[in-house]
Amino acid sequence: MKIEKVKLLDGKTVAITGSKSISNRLLILGKLFGDLKIENLSNSQDTQLLQKALNEDSETVDIHHAGTAMRFLTSFYAIQEGRKTILTGSERMKQRPIKPLVDALIGLGAEINYLENEGFPPLEIHGKKIEKNFVKIPANISSQFITSLLLIGASLENGLEIELQGEITSRSYIKMTLKILKDIGIETRFEGNLIKILSSDSSLLNQQLDVHFHSSKIKHYTVESDWSSASYFYSLAAIGKKRIHLKSFYAYSLQGDSALKNIYLKFFGVNTISDAAEHLVSLVPDNNFKYPEKFVLDMNDCPDIAQTVCVTCVALKLPFEISGLGTLKVKETDRLVALQNELEKIGCKTEITDNSIKSLEFFEPKNDISIATYNDHRMAMSFAPFALVKELDIQNEDVVEKSYPDFWKDFFEITEKL
Fold first, then answer.
1. 3-state class of 70 per DSSP?
2. Interval 358-397: pLDDT, tens
3. Which residues, 6+ apart, have CB-to-CB distance to 383 below 8 Å?
4. What is the β-pairing status of strands 320-323 and 357-362?
5. Are 345 and 339 within 8 A, CB to CB?
6. Is 304 a residue of the active site?
7. Which of 356, 411, 354, 359 is nearest to 383 (CA)?
8. Which of 46, 304, 376, 410 is catalytic?
């Protein structure tokens, strides 16, 4: 899709649907514990695929590109007593490692076999009752492996205790999961590198406690809008120097990617003004902002917004050095390699390692920029704001359906051709 050079319109409002991360956690919990109505559910393809998988009885379940669904469903099907499931996905999904999670589940007593390559989907899962309640898992690969275990913990007869080994990646996502568990009445403890989930039989589920709705437990859960999706509008505000309003966002957020509020304030001069009553945030650029000499940050807790930050830096010619990005190599694509390739097309040479990227030099890009998206939704959306600088073509633009199907509609409603 060719995008002509555009300008940002001032003061437009965008309504983004519910967080994919929160929605997917709640879908699993709703299936395990029942009696949970979810409002403002994400309309992302990933969430729709997970919802479909949870509601079908077929032996083979194909989740296509949905990595979160693959990880969450591995644990979910492992405890469905008497059910055999073949869990598979796209060719890229078959290249994404899942061994640490499978090893942890087998250590607990689960029965899971690899059908093709050791350590990778597809999986043959024979659901059974799990009685063991202690497991160790590496903490430096993907927080989704840990979350997958946390989500089933309270449904196990003896609960679950998890020892996290090594540096914890994306800690904020683990905290999000624990907060959601607490909200629906499950008791958890997180001290040092140990997480304990009490079984639902001994947890707060059976007590008269509900801080939100004053009933025995939360029965209605309204999903906050997605901060990862908001990042593209922060980028637009930073580059285009105009105000943008975003609906259905809370002043306090469970989502780790809400860190972008502080990131864009500190490095790009975009203020976030919250209207708690309206659940509205306004992105207000400071036109007199004095930029730092360099963007330097460890983004271990919010790696999913690194692509957006890189494009923002290139558009503003702000040198950058970002670390803590080890998980990007096992996403929809190797995002560090993809970033290096595509940033050069928009005028920036970079150097990458296994967990970092830094700019080396900026230069005037050629015309006819064509951005490859590598079947990665975030590549498409993170590069779109560069259209404020120069005309560009986004290949395979429909890939945004994975997390934000309305992205192009919203993008063109707040911009206009120059």
1. helix
2. 999 999 999 999 999 998 999 999 999 999 999 999 999 9
3. 307, 311, 342, 346, 371, 392, 394
4. antiparallel
5. no
6. yes
7. 411
8. 304
